[in-house]
Amino acid sequence: MSVITPYQHYLDNAILGADPEQLTLMLYNSVIKFIGQALHAVEKKDVAATHNAIVRAQDIVSHLAATLKEGYTVSAGLLELYHYLGRRLVEANIHKDTTALTEVLGIAEELRDTWFQAMQQARREKP
Q1: Does the pLDDT of residue 76 top 50, yes or no?
Q2: pTM metric for this prediction
Q3: Which of 11, 42, 72, 112 is most exposed, with the fewest beta carbons within 10 Å of its own?
C-alpha cells in the first residue's frame, strides 16, 4: 500500500484544478524537468536514470502531439515539431547524447515560454 505524501496530494489537487492551458504549461515544465534529470544522469553515467528520464520526456511529448486540436495551422506545425522532438529524444536515449538533449531542452523552454506569454495575453484580452 502506498502512502500519499502531502506533496503528492498538492500535485494531485493542482492537476485536477487546472484548466487546459495550465495543464499544457505543466506538461512543458515536466518535459524540461525530465530532460534536466537526463542531462544530470548522463553526466553521472547513470544509464538507467538517463533512460527513465528520457522516456518520461518522450511520453509527455507524445501526449502533447496526441492532444493537438486539428484544423489549426499552428497545430500542423506543432505536430511536426513534436515528432522531431520525439525523434531527437530517441537518438539521445540510444547514444546518451547531451547535444540532442540540450537541443530538445532549448526548444521545450521556448515552447513553454511562448505558451506562457500566450496565456498571459489571452487573460489580458478576456472581457
Answers
A1: yes
A2: 0.87
A3: 72
